[in-house]
Design brief:
Blueprint: H1 2-25, H2 33-53, H3 63-70, H4 77-84
Helix pairs in contact: 1-2, 2-4
Length: about 90
């Protein structure tokens, strides 16, 4: 039972982190299909980094983005390239 609750809490934190990343990057919403595609690439490229590097970071206020910036030396190359718009 404790394991199930722990798994649910972890899943909720991961989901909240992804929502925060999406919110931080998607404001304002993409105006074109090209921007929407770039955003999807960014979300896909950085999702693992958010889960790995910022698991306890509360969403909102740019906290996920700051966390990734603070740990930029640990961020995956795919996420770095997506942020730089090279992917």
């Amino acid at each position: 039972m404790v394991s199930l609750i722990r798994d649910i809490v972890i899943a909720a934190l991961v989901t909240a982190g992804l929502v925060a990343l999406i919110s931080a990057v998607a404001s304002p919403p993409p105006a074109s299909a090209q921007e929407a595609a770039a955003f999807r690439t960014l979300r896909q490229a950085c999702a693992g980094d958010v889960r790995k590097l910022c698991p306890g970071v509360a969403p909102g206020g740019g906290r996920i983005k700051r966390c990734l910036e603070e740990k930029s030396d640990q961020v995956s190359e795919a996420c770095k390239q997506a942020v730089a718009g090279k992917r």
